[in-house]
């Protein structure tokens, strides 16, 4: 059991607002209303304390792929993201053969059962060949609900989200099936029209997979999926805030339209996140990472990101000009609520897991705590 602590002197971002010179008590693995007697006082003057980040969409990091790595490699990838403040992570797969993905689901479900990940997100193979991005075209399938269901079942209750091109045959029936199963249907890698996307949302789709990327652009006579996803209050939009996938003005447009409660910043990270440039595999496809930008060797399509959520946060505040509280919501409370985990994580409240990030005045990570234990100890630096 981790010893009890009081984090003192920092600006603490609470659900009710930011408190200067705040005190946050941690008792064991949880946030406490009051410090237990004898608690260690940790002086964090000059720092921010924000909730641990929740990543809905992440394919790997630290040189490891969640689609193809061994369990140890996957754990290394998770740890890499934890060092950057992500205390809750949904592991995403890329398109593969269905039998292969079902086996992967088994391995990842074990990690979910151990509490290392918050579940599995299947991105592909049920996506549009017109908007395939970095997915193998020959392995793409129409979203027949029976096929989609095989992946959900293979995940043994840990499938959290499936990205679909809902305009394909079986798409709407699959959305309904997923909603019935309590799995989030996400619209993405799609060539849908505005009207088709509205139909998918009516059927139960609730997330936009990396809004703007891998979908038709917004046109004034063909408003497309972007408009449908932005205008429906029930939809949370994922944004990759790495300065590569989105122009800051496009990010601000989405943020202002959806409002701060409906945006989730994600990494969509691949193996190179927190690792370095070089040649990597994304599923069966080769990717070159140069200056932190991942592109397919064949065709040059952007192939995931090398983002970590601490950088997404720092950009949001220092480049995009978002209020700290709004950026915090997009990195913690909103994705936690979407995942049905808001009773445990996503905000700094007594009774919740002591998952938090300590940032300095320049918004660089100085400490990370997960379930009451330091992953990065701010006193060691
Ligand atoms: Zn992805």
Keywords for this structure?
single chain; 381 residues; alpha/beta; Urease, subunit C, domain 1; TIM Barrel; eight-stranded parallel β-sheet; 10 helices; 21 strands; globular; binds zinc ion
Question: Can you summarize this structure?
Answer:
With 381 residues, this protein is α/β, with parallel strands linked by helices. The chain is 27% helix and 27% strand.
What topology does this entry show?
Blueprint: E1 5-14, E2 17-27, E3 30-32, E4 40-43, E5 48-51, E6 53-58, E7 60-61, E8 64-65, H1 71-83, E9 86-93, H2 98-113, E10 120-123, H3 145-154, E11 159-164, H4 171-181, E12 184-187, H5 194-203, E13 207-208, H6 224-231, E14 236-240, H7 248-258, E15 263-266, E16 278-282, E17 285-290, E18 293-296, H8 309-318, H9 324-331, H10 333-338, E19 356-359, E20 365-370, E21 373-376
Parallel strand pairs: 1-4, 1-5, 6-9, 9-10, 10-11, 11-12, 12-13, 13-14, 14-15
Antiparallel strand pairs: 1-2, 2-3, 5-19, 7-8, 16-17, 17-18, 19-20, 20-21
Helix pairs in contact: 2-3, 3-4, 5-6, 8-9
The chain binds zinc ion (ZN).
